[in-house]
Write a sequence for this structure.
């Protein structure tokens, strides 16, 4: 009987050495490699599509230079900013950075028109002048119409820092004058569709105050709801000249201005002058319904009668007069 070989300690606990793997055992099949590359390219394409969609829909926050933003792209609804509130905003931006992006529209040529975020933009510019960042976080939106851009501006201010009734009425009037809306009623309804009917009615009353006293008031945004409605009622009763007269002397502050207005409201109103009726034009051509209104910028002709034929005839007439 043959003797068995006695194993040493190292041999007893060693494992058999595996046979070397051949090249075909470790390399991936060509079809698997191609499939992986296609999947990676598809993931990149899908990510690019998501980013492009977010950018087109105004959901992508981007960093753009402050000096590329045109602050007066729209007629602003806010007439000014309280110095104390602006100082607090600047301090917050200095300590915490910009938390909420502004909204802009792409004007082309790497220029962007401001839609909402007027206070944040100016606060960041103050910081930039003091050595701070020279960029702003922004969402580039694409409103379908110019009216929608104004609605975005107004709603942003309504949510964050409410406008005064005077500022609300003023932007309605300016939007109508700029032709953003065809009528004042449409401007009021369009810009403030999300407020109550009672609030819209009060804004409409303040429009009367803006029209009559905008060039005479020094502190219009300080006029409260009650005084504004009283002024609107007095203006409708024909006290416009009386109110303008007390504002002829510039007031040093809002309290003095409002006290002067209250004094005029308490005083007996002067007899309103009846406007003279204009004699109807004889042999005037009939162009249809046309409304003529005088603004600071000049005369505004509106209505279905303002046709291309009317414009051509008017231009010819003006050329003869010139």
């Amino acid at each position: 009987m043959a003797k068995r070989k006695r194993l040493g300690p190292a041999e007893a606990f060693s494992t058999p050495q595996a046979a070397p793997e051949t090249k075909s055992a470790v390399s991936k099949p060509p079809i698997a490699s191609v499939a992986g590359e296609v999947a990676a390219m598809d993931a990149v394409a899908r990510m690019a599509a998501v980013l492009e969609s977010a950018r087109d829909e105004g959901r992508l926050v981007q960093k753009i230079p402050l000096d590329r933003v045109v602050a007066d792209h729209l007629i602003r609804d806010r007439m000014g900013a309280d110095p104390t509130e602006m100082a607090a905003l600047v301090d917050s931006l200095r300590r915490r950075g910009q938390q909420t992006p502004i909204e802009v529209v792409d004007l082309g040529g790497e220029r962007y028109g401001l839609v909402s975020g007027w206070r944040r933009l100016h606060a960041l510019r103050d910081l930039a002048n003091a050595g701070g960042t020279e960029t702003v976080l922004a969402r580039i939106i694409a409103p379908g119409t110019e009216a929608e851009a104004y609605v975005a501006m107004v709603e942003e201010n309504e949510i964050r820092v409410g406008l005064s009734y005077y500022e609300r009425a003023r932007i309605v009037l300016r939007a109508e004058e700029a032709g953003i809306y065809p009528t004042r009623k449409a401007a009021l309804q369009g810009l403030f569709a999300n407020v109550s009917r009672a609030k819209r009615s009060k804004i409409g009353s303040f429009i009367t105050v803006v029209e009559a006293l905008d060039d005479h008031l020094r502190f219009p945004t300080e006029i409260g709801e009650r005084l504004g409605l009283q002024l609107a009622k007095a203006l409708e009763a024909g006290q416009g000249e009386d109110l303008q007269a007390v504002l002829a002397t510039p007031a040093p502050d809002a309290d003095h201005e409002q006290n002067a207005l209250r004094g005029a409201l308490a005083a007996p109103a002067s007899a309103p002058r009846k406007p003279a009726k204009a004699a109807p034009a004889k042999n005037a051509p009939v162009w249809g319904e046309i409304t003529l209104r005088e603004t600071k910028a000049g005369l505004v002709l509106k209505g279905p009668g303002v046709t291309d034929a009317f414009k051509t005839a008017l231009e010819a007439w003006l050329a003869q007069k010139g």
In short: DSSP finds 13 helices and seven strands in the chain. Strands lie at 61-65, 69-70, 102-108, 111-116, 135-140, 291-295, 298-302.
